[in-house]
Each structure stands twice: as C-alpha cells, then as structure tokens.
Structure to design on (26 residues):
C-alpha cells in the first residue's frame, strides 16, 4: 500500500517539474 505522504510528495514533485522543467532536467 502506498502511503499518503508518498502520494503527496509525488504530486508536489510533478507540479514543481512542470513549473521548473529546466531545474529538474539537468
């Protein structure tokens, strides 16, 4: 079972990646 925190972290990372693609795609 995936923990709720893991799901939240994953969504936050996705949103951050969309907002700053150059920062995460080094």
């Amino acid at each position: 079972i995936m923990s709720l925190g893991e799901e939240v972290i994953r969504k936050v990372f996705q949103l951050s990646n969309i907002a700053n693609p150059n920062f995460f795609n080094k």
Remarks:
- The chain has one domain: 1-26.
- The two ends are 31 Å apart (CA to CA).
